[in-house]
Structure formats: C-alpha cells, structure tokens
Amino acid sequence: MGSYLDARHAGGRWLVRIDDLDPPRIRAGAATGILNALRCLGLHWDGEVLQQSTRTPAYADALERLQSLGLLYVCSCTRREVSGRAYPGTCRLKALKDAPQRCLRLRIPGGPLPLDDMIQGPRRFDVAATTGDIIVRRADGLTAYHLAAVVDDHFQGVTHVVRGADLLDASAIQCCVQGVLGFPAPRYGHLPMAVDASGRKLSKSLGAEAALLSAEPATLLLSALKFLGQNPDRALAGAPVQEVTDWAVANWRREKVPRAPAKIPVWPDMI
Ligand SMILES: [Zn+2]
C-alpha cells in the first residue's frame, strides 16, 4: 500500500511483479491469491503483471555480460560452509570449472556505498564487508533473486522502489549489481516493519494472512494508513474502498511515514 500511494500521489505508474523463479518453493494459487487481495483492497496496478518465470533469457544475457566483464567466478562452497557470515572469497582465485552443483558469484567492489533512502534517510553500506561476493546463479542453475530483481527493475523502467525495511540490505546489494551492469539506480524508500507484540515481523506464518482475509478491506486500509503515519479522516469510517484509496492518494505524505517498526493499529480504536 505504501508503494501504491507513493507512486500514485506522484502521478506515477504502479507495477506488480511476481517472483516465481524458484519452482520448488511456489505454492499453487499463491500468485492468484495475492492479485485478488490487491484487487479487493482497490490497489489496481498498471500494465501486465510481470512473471519472473518468463524472463530466463534476459537473466542469461545479464550473466553473459557479467561474465564477459570478468566479474564472475565459479564457487564450490556449500551453503553450510558460508552461512551466517560474509562470503570470504574462498573461491575467488581458484579458477574452478563450471559444473552442476556449483554456483556463480559476482565480485562485489569494496568500500562504502551511500544510499539516500526516501524514508529511512541517508544510510551507508559496505556490501563487500557485510555480504561479500554474491551468488548470481545458484548451484541448482536458477538465477539468484538479486540479479533477477535488478534486471527486471531495469527492464520495467522502475524509478522508485518502496518496500519493507527488512529489504534495506537487499537494496544495497542490488545497487552494487546495478553499478556493475551500468544501470541507473532507482530511488529507494523503506517502510517500517509491521511487528507483533513480541517484535516479530508479521508474516503468513504468524497468521497475518488469515487476518487480512477476514477483515473488511476498507477497515484494513484505514489501519494501514494509520500505521504509515497518515491521518485518515474520521469521516472515512464506513466509507467504501475506492473512497479510502482516493483520499489516501490525494493526501499521501511520505515525510510522515515513521522509520521504526511498530504494531498495526486497529481502526477505529486508534483515533
Ligand atoms: Zn566458494
């Protein structure tokens, strides 16, 4: 909703992309469920929904380009060997032959990366130090998320990315990838995380999806608006979805969005 309002308030287009790159992890009907929920909430997207599963040739082109720039190398480390820390570059100089069960990594340039976030303010990252060389083609042959996201953002002409603060590190990594591919970086804005009483991120596993489906769409929108630091008009109580979204687009104030994680307030108790 934050990205929808930010785009629409600026007179921009709002694009929906389905990250269905990872067949073993795809739940049947999940994409349809997401699109239906968006329609229900009056969050109508522009153009066709882009499915990453249709974009394999574009990802192969990007890999070839990185390869020809001499920025890729084959890595045979197992997930267990490198989990939980920055990849130390173990295979950088080994010149391993590409083979099944081996991944391709992209050399990440060292040094600070400033990112002027539209919501979180100026931040500094050092991807080489915190993440290290990233996987761009996984050991199972699939394109890794960061490369796919960068290639698709560029393909779709994305100028602004608004998403959850849990993706701040991902955005920094993607800026690095844009840099090496010579793509202009979009502006990023990271919304506060919605958490439960014990500070855990709200997600499907915590029953947030069930809550989403059981509540009234217009009421959900009002709660989300309050969460995003907007002050929905009291007169909107009981209004239809379209009226709430129209109000929200017209009155969106990005500078009012809080930075810190918070619980979702329940309308109308919170006003
Ligand atoms: Zn390795």
Q: Spell out the helices and strands N to C.
A: HEHEHEHEEEHEHEHEHHH
Question: Per CATH, which architecture of the domain at 55-191?
Answer: 3-Layer(aba) Sandwich
Integer average pLDDT: 92
Q: Could you say which structural class the secondary elements and strand pairing correspond to?
A: alpha/beta
Termini, distance in Å?
20 Å
Got a strand count?
9
Low-confidence stretches: none
Assign the CATH class of the domain at 55-191.
Alpha Beta
Largest sheet: 3 strands, antiparallel
Question: What proportion of the residues form beta strands (DSSP E)?
Answer: 5-15%
Fraction of residues in H or I helices: 25-40%
Bound molecules: zinc ion
CATH topology call of the domain at 55-191 = Rossmann fold
CATH homologous group name of the domain at 55-191: HUPs
